[in-house]
Amino acid sequence: MSTEMTEDARPARPIVTLPGVYAPQHDTRLLMAALDKERIGPGTDVLDLGTGSGALALHAAQLGARVTAVDISWRAVLTARLNALLRRRHITVQRSDLLSSLPGRSYDLVICNPPYVPSPLGRIPGHGAARAWDAGRDGRAILDRLCETAPAALRPGGRLLIVHSGLCNSDVTLRRLSDAGLHAGVVDRAFVPLGPVLRSRLHWLRDRGLLKAGDMLEELVVIRAEHP
User: Which residues neighbour 39 within 8 Å (Cβ) at sequence distance 6 or greater?
Assistant: First the structure.
Protein backbone atom coordinates (compact mmCIF):
# COMPACT_ATOMS: atom_id res chain seq x y z
CA MET A 1 0.00 0.00 0.00
CA SER A 2 1.34 3.43 -0.92
CA THR A 3 2.32 5.82 1.89
CA GLU A 4 3.31 8.79 -0.28
CA MET A 5 2.29 12.21 1.05
CA THR A 6 0.25 14.80 -0.80
CA GLU A 7 0.99 18.51 -0.56
CA ASP A 8 -1.46 18.85 2.32
CA ALA A 9 0.63 16.29 4.26
CA ARG A 10 -2.04 13.59 4.33
CA PRO A 11 -1.20 10.06 3.19
CA ALA A 12 -2.31 9.45 -0.39
CA ARG A 13 -5.13 6.99 -0.89
CA PRO A 14 -3.99 3.63 -2.25
CA ILE A 15 -4.57 2.94 -5.92
CA VAL A 16 -7.67 0.80 -6.46
CA THR A 17 -8.19 -1.50 -9.44
CA LEU A 18 -11.45 -2.87 -10.76
CA PRO A 19 -11.42 -6.58 -11.73
CA GLY A 20 -9.53 -7.10 -14.98
CA VAL A 21 -7.50 -3.87 -14.71
CA TYR A 22 -3.70 -4.07 -14.44
CA ALA A 23 -2.60 -3.25 -10.90
CA PRO A 24 0.64 -1.26 -10.36
CA GLN A 25 3.65 -3.59 -10.20
CA HIS A 26 7.44 -3.53 -10.62
CA ASP A 27 7.23 -2.02 -14.10
CA THR A 28 4.91 0.76 -12.91
CA ARG A 29 7.28 1.69 -10.09
CA LEU A 30 10.32 1.62 -12.39
CA LEU A 31 8.65 3.98 -14.86
CA MET A 32 7.46 6.18 -11.99
CA ALA A 33 11.06 6.56 -10.80
CA ALA A 34 12.09 7.59 -14.32
CA LEU A 35 9.24 10.08 -14.40
CA ASP A 36 10.59 11.70 -11.24
CA LYS A 37 13.83 12.53 -13.09
CA GLU A 38 12.09 14.50 -15.83
CA ARG A 39 11.44 18.23 -15.93
CA ILE A 40 7.77 18.41 -14.99
CA GLY A 41 5.82 21.42 -13.80
CA PRO A 42 2.55 23.33 -14.20
CA GLY A 43 3.21 24.00 -17.89
CA THR A 44 4.04 20.41 -18.81
CA ASP A 45 1.56 18.51 -20.96
CA VAL A 46 1.80 14.75 -20.28
CA LEU A 47 0.09 11.89 -22.10
CA ASP A 48 -0.20 8.48 -20.45
CA LEU A 49 -0.89 5.80 -23.08
CA GLY A 50 -2.54 2.64 -21.76
CA THR A 51 -3.10 4.17 -18.34
CA GLY A 52 -4.63 1.09 -16.66
CA SER A 53 -5.25 2.09 -13.05
CA GLY A 54 -4.10 5.65 -13.70
CA ALA A 55 -1.19 5.35 -11.26
CA LEU A 56 1.38 6.96 -13.57
CA ALA A 57 -0.99 9.66 -14.77
CA LEU A 58 -1.81 10.60 -11.19
CA HIS A 59 1.87 10.70 -10.27
CA ALA A 60 2.52 13.09 -13.15
CA ALA A 61 -0.41 15.23 -11.99
CA GLN A 62 1.02 15.27 -8.47
CA LEU A 63 4.25 16.64 -9.96
CA GLY A 64 2.18 19.50 -11.41
CA ALA A 65 1.61 18.42 -15.02
CA ARG A 66 -1.53 18.74 -17.11
CA VAL A 67 -2.31 15.11 -17.80
CA THR A 68 -4.29 13.25 -20.43
CA ALA A 69 -4.64 9.49 -19.89
CA VAL A 70 -6.07 6.98 -22.36
CA ASP A 71 -6.77 3.27 -22.44
CA ILE A 72 -8.54 0.93 -24.85
CA SER A 73 -10.40 -0.70 -21.95
CA TRP A 74 -13.52 1.04 -20.64
CA ARG A 75 -12.94 -0.66 -17.30
CA ALA A 76 -9.47 0.87 -17.12
CA VAL A 77 -10.89 4.29 -18.03
CA LEU A 78 -13.41 4.02 -15.20
CA THR A 79 -10.69 2.85 -12.80
CA ALA A 80 -8.42 5.77 -13.63
CA ARG A 81 -11.31 8.22 -13.23
CA LEU A 82 -12.18 6.66 -9.88
CA ASN A 83 -8.60 6.95 -8.63
CA ALA A 84 -8.43 10.57 -9.75
CA LEU A 85 -11.63 11.27 -7.83
CA LEU A 86 -10.36 9.50 -4.71
CA ARG A 87 -7.05 11.40 -4.84
CA ARG A 88 -8.68 14.70 -5.79
CA ARG A 89 -6.45 15.09 -8.82
CA HIS A 90 -7.60 16.52 -12.13
CA ILE A 91 -6.66 14.36 -15.11
CA THR A 92 -8.48 13.93 -18.41
CA VAL A 93 -9.23 10.24 -18.99
CA GLN A 94 -10.75 8.92 -22.19
CA ARG A 95 -11.00 5.72 -24.18
CA SER A 96 -8.54 5.42 -27.05
CA ASP A 97 -6.51 2.78 -28.85
CA LEU A 98 -3.14 4.47 -28.31
CA LEU A 99 -3.36 7.81 -30.20
CA SER A 100 -6.41 7.04 -32.33
CA SER A 101 -8.71 9.50 -30.52
CA LEU A 102 -6.07 12.24 -30.25
CA PRO A 103 -5.31 13.23 -33.85
CA GLY A 104 -2.99 16.18 -34.24
CA ARG A 105 -2.35 16.68 -30.53
CA SER A 106 1.19 16.94 -29.15
CA TYR A 107 2.78 16.72 -25.71
CA ASP A 108 5.93 17.54 -23.79
CA LEU A 109 6.09 14.04 -22.32
CA VAL A 110 4.50 10.74 -23.36
CA ILE A 111 4.69 7.78 -20.98
CA CYS A 112 3.64 4.21 -21.62
CA ASN A 113 3.65 0.86 -19.82
CA PRO A 114 2.28 -1.20 -22.72
CA PRO A 115 1.32 -4.87 -22.94
CA TYR A 116 4.61 -6.66 -23.68
CA VAL A 117 4.38 -10.31 -22.57
CA PRO A 118 5.13 -12.87 -25.33
CA SER A 119 2.17 -15.17 -25.80
CA PRO A 120 1.99 -18.63 -27.39
CA LEU A 121 -1.49 -17.70 -28.68
CA GLY A 122 0.11 -15.31 -31.15
CA ARG A 123 -2.75 -12.83 -31.01
CA ILE A 124 -3.87 -9.89 -28.91
CA PRO A 125 -6.87 -10.66 -26.70
CA GLY A 126 -9.96 -8.65 -27.56
CA HIS A 127 -11.18 -8.57 -23.97
CA GLY A 128 -10.39 -9.81 -20.48
CA ALA A 129 -7.51 -9.18 -18.09
CA ALA A 130 -4.89 -10.67 -20.46
CA ARG A 131 -5.36 -7.70 -22.80
CA ALA A 132 -3.26 -5.72 -20.29
CA TRP A 133 -0.18 -7.91 -20.82
CA ASP A 134 -0.39 -10.29 -23.82
CA ALA A 135 1.24 -8.81 -26.93
CA GLY A 136 1.69 -11.49 -29.57
CA ARG A 137 4.34 -14.18 -29.97
CA ASP A 138 7.28 -11.76 -29.67
CA GLY A 139 5.63 -9.38 -27.20
CA ARG A 140 5.97 -6.49 -29.64
CA ALA A 141 2.47 -6.15 -31.13
CA ILE A 142 1.82 -2.92 -29.19
CA LEU A 143 5.43 -1.82 -28.84
CA ASP A 144 5.98 -1.66 -32.59
CA ARG A 145 2.81 0.41 -33.06
CA LEU A 146 3.95 2.69 -30.26
CA CYS A 147 7.38 3.21 -31.84
CA GLU A 148 5.67 4.07 -35.12
CA THR A 149 3.02 6.48 -33.83
CA ALA A 150 4.28 8.08 -30.59
CA PRO A 151 7.04 10.25 -32.15
CA ALA A 152 4.38 12.29 -33.97
CA ALA A 153 2.80 13.17 -30.61
CA LEU A 154 6.02 14.76 -29.27
CA ARG A 155 6.70 18.46 -29.45
CA PRO A 156 10.25 19.59 -30.29
CA GLY A 157 12.29 18.70 -27.21
CA GLY A 158 9.51 16.34 -26.10
CA ARG A 159 10.32 13.07 -24.38
CA LEU A 160 8.98 9.53 -24.51
CA LEU A 161 9.34 7.06 -21.62
CA ILE A 162 8.53 3.38 -22.14
CA VAL A 163 8.98 0.41 -19.85
CA HIS A 164 9.00 -3.16 -21.15
CA SER A 165 10.51 -6.59 -20.66
CA GLY A 166 13.95 -7.54 -21.92
CA LEU A 167 12.19 -10.53 -23.47
CA CYS A 168 10.93 -8.15 -26.18
CA ASN A 169 14.43 -7.14 -27.31
CA SER A 170 15.11 -3.57 -26.25
CA ASP A 171 17.56 -3.14 -29.16
CA VAL A 172 14.62 -3.38 -31.56
CA THR A 173 12.79 -0.63 -29.66
CA LEU A 174 15.87 1.60 -29.70
CA ARG A 175 16.38 1.05 -33.43
CA ARG A 176 12.75 1.77 -34.30
CA LEU A 177 12.71 4.97 -32.24
CA SER A 178 16.02 6.08 -33.77
CA ASP A 179 14.65 5.37 -37.24
CA ALA A 180 11.70 7.63 -36.32
CA GLY A 181 14.15 10.48 -35.66
CA LEU A 182 14.37 10.30 -31.87
CA HIS A 183 17.47 10.11 -29.69
CA ALA A 184 16.83 6.94 -27.67
CA GLY A 185 18.60 4.98 -24.96
CA VAL A 186 18.05 2.70 -21.97
CA VAL A 187 18.04 4.83 -18.81
CA ASP A 188 17.16 2.23 -16.17
CA ARG A 189 16.79 -1.51 -15.75
CA ALA A 190 15.86 -3.95 -13.02
CA PHE A 191 15.69 -7.70 -12.57
CA VAL A 192 12.52 -8.90 -10.88
CA PRO A 193 11.11 -12.35 -10.06
CA LEU A 194 9.06 -13.93 -12.81
CA GLY A 195 5.37 -13.26 -12.29
CA PRO A 196 2.62 -15.87 -12.51
CA VAL A 197 1.98 -15.31 -16.24
CA LEU A 198 5.61 -15.88 -17.23
CA ARG A 199 5.95 -18.80 -14.83
CA SER A 200 2.97 -20.45 -16.51
CA ARG A 201 4.82 -20.15 -19.87
CA LEU A 202 8.28 -21.24 -18.76
CA HIS A 203 8.55 -24.24 -21.07
CA TRP A 204 7.34 -22.28 -24.09
CA LEU A 205 9.68 -19.33 -23.34
CA ARG A 206 12.64 -21.71 -22.92
CA ASP A 207 11.79 -23.57 -26.12
CA ARG A 208 11.87 -20.24 -27.96
CA GLY A 209 15.21 -19.30 -26.37
CA LEU A 210 13.74 -16.31 -24.54
CA LEU A 211 14.65 -17.77 -21.15
CA LYS A 212 17.46 -20.11 -20.20
CA ALA A 213 17.04 -23.13 -17.97
CA GLY A 214 17.12 -21.94 -14.38
CA ASP A 215 16.26 -18.32 -15.20
CA MET A 216 13.69 -17.10 -12.69
CA LEU A 217 14.23 -13.36 -13.12
CA GLU A 218 12.84 -11.02 -15.76
CA GLU A 219 14.74 -7.96 -16.94
CA LEU A 220 12.72 -4.74 -17.14
CA VAL A 221 14.06 -1.76 -19.07
CA VAL A 222 13.06 1.89 -19.21
CA ILE A 223 13.71 3.50 -22.56
CA ARG A 224 13.87 7.26 -22.92
CA ALA A 225 13.62 8.92 -26.32
CA GLU A 226 13.77 12.63 -27.07
CA HIS A 227 12.55 14.64 -30.03
CA PRO A 228 15.46 16.81 -31.25
Answer: none
Domains of the chain by residue range? 26-226
Q: What CATH superfamily is the domain 26-226?
A: Vaccinia Virus protein VP39 (3.40.50.150)
For the question of whether the overall pTM of this predicted structure is more than 0.90, the answer is: yes
CB atoms within 10 A of CB 193: 10
- Residue 160 and residue 225: Cα distance in Å, rounded? 5
Distance CA 9, CA 111 (A): 27
Task: Return phi, psi of residue 99, to 5°.
Answer: -95, 10
Q: What is the tens place of the pLDDT at every residue in 23-64?
A: 999 999 999 999 999 999 999 999 999 999 999 999 999 999
> Cβ(29)–Cβ(161) under 8 Å?
no
